[in-house]
Amino acid sequence: MSAAAATFVRTDEEWRRLLTPEQYYIMRQHGTERPGSCALLHEKRQGSFTCAGCGQPLFASDGKFESGTGWPSFGAPIEGSVTTTVDRSHGMVRTEVSCSRCESHLGHVFDDGPPPTFLRYCINGVAMNFEPA
Ligand SMILES: [Zn+2]
Questions:
Q1: What is the end-to-end Cα distance of the chain in Å, rounded?
Q2: Domain 3-132 superfamily per CATH
Q3: pTM (2 decimals)?
Q4: How far is the CA of 10 from the centre of ligand 1 (A)?
Q5: Which residues of the chain have pLDDT under 50?
Q6: Which one is catalytic: 54, 99, 102, 122?
């Protein structure tokens, strides 16, 4: 796991109570939701996307774009809200994105995004909640 000091710590038992089974699978067991399965993909309002595990704001609606992948995609996270680690699972080398506060798995970041960051944060919708501005 990342070296960042998580400040929102829960036991496995608590996470199972706190999250839905799908959220638990994705956020605590590094799973991936089916593309196109989450309503947040089509969220177009102004506001912020927060961590479903701890409530920390992760992404602003301004940075969201339609990537065509079926997962909510962003050019950049809110400063300091995520940590990244190298993920060598499934025979690929990817950069995993986790919440900096509770260390829940969120998704991955790729370097094929649009300007200005040229990054694509590919995030599981169920790992987030949306708070309208
Ligand atoms: Zn979190």
A1: 33
A2: Peptide methionine sulfoxide reductase. (2.170.150.20)
A3: 0.93
A4: 11
A5: 1-2
A6: 122
